[in-house]
Amino acid sequence: MDYLKIEGIKSLNGTIKISGAKNASLPLIAMTILAKNSVHIKNLPSVVDINTLLKLLTNLGASCDFLDDRVVVDTSTITQTKATYDIVKTMRASILVLGPILARFGHCEVSLPGGCAIGQRPIDLHLKALEQMGAIINIKSGYIEASAPNGLKACNISFDKITVTGTANIVMAAALADGITTLTNAAREPEVVQLCEVLNANGVKIEGIGTAVLTIHGTNGKCIDIKEFSVIPDRIEAGTYLCAGAITRSELTLSNVQAKHLGAVLAKLEEMGSTFTLTDDTVTIHPSWDIKPVKIVTQEYPAFPTDMQAQFLALATQADGVSIIEERLFENRFMHVSELQRMGADITLNGNIATVNGKNQLSGTDVMATDLRASSALVLAALVANGTTNIHRIYHLDRGYDRLKEKLEMVGAKIQRLSE
Ligand code: UD1
Questions:
Q1: Is residue 314 within 8 Å of 380, Cβ to Cβ?
Q2: What are the tens digits of pLDDT across the range 258-287?
Q3: What is the pTM of this model?
Q4: Long-range contacts of range 136-143, CB-CB < 8 Å, 24 or more positions apart?
């Protein structure tokens, strides 16, 4: 197993190119199941989760040619409709194939994803909505068995809670359904918006894109032709490197980024003292030496993203004063706290609220990555710690950060990837 060895340093300097968004790429790749042609996708990140989904599609019979940041996916050769446990257990987002496979083939089996490090993460809302569309769903031997022998029927669906992959799944199911589906309390994340925009540009009319009410005009079982498109930049990767600039008090420029997707993150960094120069596709952070404490509540987009909570918690350890960070989306998403405490952070956890009593001089030590974003919080802490930090179990980072070591090295970080 590999680990990262990071020397605490004074400052970084330079430009980091942001990759395509993992969380946009996953539903967009799943969407190719709805296509009758070979689909060309550009600006994909080189991360393990993308390989996992492409492997899942390949196992079903699709052909996937992934080179650099491009893939060509041909799903016309799919012969299987079962997403097996060995793949689903490694990536919960595999559930994204349920809606499109069911819509196209009338039946699908997907292994239940099970629990995960950050919380229970049920999929009841996905299943309930598919049942409303006429699917018959049984849970048997750890698998979701779904069938819709006469195709899915459009209906009015209202999610009890906003769910990102749930929205993507139902939009893809509704795309091939018979009639017009209305989805209320839909997620408005940019990744969901892009999925809707690509479908809308390729024969599935969708109204209300970017709002909480989506109206999807189904094609009644007809697969669609999907033209080449490029994945939006990864706003969480961008946010993480902005935190790297802020925590090391370094001017960093991010290229291939869309500032409009980073509203809540930029606002909180501004509250903490940073300023920014924005262009159409770059963001430069001008950090302040004195970092101010902050209050953060994670919520659905456009509010502050849960996927940036861990990184801001690391940053708050360097703020002068008391920061309060409340996690509202996942019940167990504070695994990084105990590791940061081991590095010398003064953090008190009370249920879903972390109180960070800054500023703390962190010390390098051996720490363990526990989930994707928690891992990046440890990288940020390591950048300003005294001495050397070894971050173990970095396979979590590999799932979602494209060449993190190389990107940080390019701007001056002292970072090595070594084998245990
Ligand atoms: C997606 C993102 C993840 C991000 C999360 C929240 C992808 C691949 N992953 O995850 O990075 O942290 O959104 O922004 O895009 N819920 C239910 N029942 C359901 C579905 C969800 O109760 O059927 C709950 C969840 O437990 C959670 C909340 O709804 O408390 C939001 O979860 P959801 O938006 O579904 O997260 P994911 O789509 O899994």
A1: yes
A2: 999 999 999 999 999 999 999 999 999 999
A3: 0.97
A4: 139/112, 142/85, 142/111, 142/112, 143/82, 143/85, 143/109, 143/110, 143/111, 143/112
| Span from the CA of 161 to the centroid of ligand 1 (angstroms) | 10
Q: What is the rounded CA–CA span in Å between residue 151 and residue 236?
A: 37
196 counts as catalytic:
no
Q: Where are the alpha helices (DSSP H) in 317-402?
A: 335-342, 372-384, 395-400
Distance 130 CA to ligand 1 centre (A): 17
Q: Do 197 and 125 meet the contact criterion of CB atoms below 8 Å apart? A: no
- Cα–Cα distance measured from residue 381 to residue 339, given in angstroms and rounded to the nearest whole number: 10
**Phi-psi bin for 39: left (phi > 0), alpha (psi -120 to 50), beta?**
beta
pLDDT surpasses 80 at 117: no
pLDDT at 199 over 70: yes
Span 90-115, pLDDT tens digits: 999 999 999 999 999 999 999 988 65
Cα of 404 vs its chain's centroid, Å: 15
Residues within a 6 A CB radius of ligand 1: 23, 26, 93, 121-126, 161, 163-166, 191, 305-307, 329-330
Is 130:101 a contact under the CB 8 Å cutoff? no
Ligand 1 atom index nearest CA of 161: 29
